[in-house]
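Q: What would this chain look like folded?
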Amino acid sequence: MSKDITGFFKGKLQEAKTQFERTIDCKHTEFDDLYPYMSEQPQFFWYKRYVAWQELLTVVKLAEEMDINWKQEFQEEQQRFIEKKVLDAKVLDDWYGKKRTEA
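A: My prediction, written as C-alpha cells:
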C-alpha cells in the first residue's frame, strides 16, 4: 500500500508543480475557471501565483509528514525556494534556472 501512497503523492507533487509553473508563465489554470471575472484585474495574476505556491507547499508538507521524498521532483534551486517557503520575485525569476532568464 505504501507504493500506492508514494505514487499518489508524486503525482500530486507534479500536478502542483505544473500548476505553479503555469502561473509563472501566465497560462490558464484551474484557478482561472473559479474566478473568470477576476482575470481583468492586474492583481489577479499575483494572487493566482500565491494560491498555486501555497498548494505546492501544502503537498510538499504532506509528503514530508508521510516520509515521501519530494526533492527528487525538483531542481536544487527549486528545493531551496520551497524550503524557504517565501514567494518573491527571485522565485518567479529563477524558478526555471539562470539559463532561461538569460535567454
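DSSP finds six helices and no strands in the chain.
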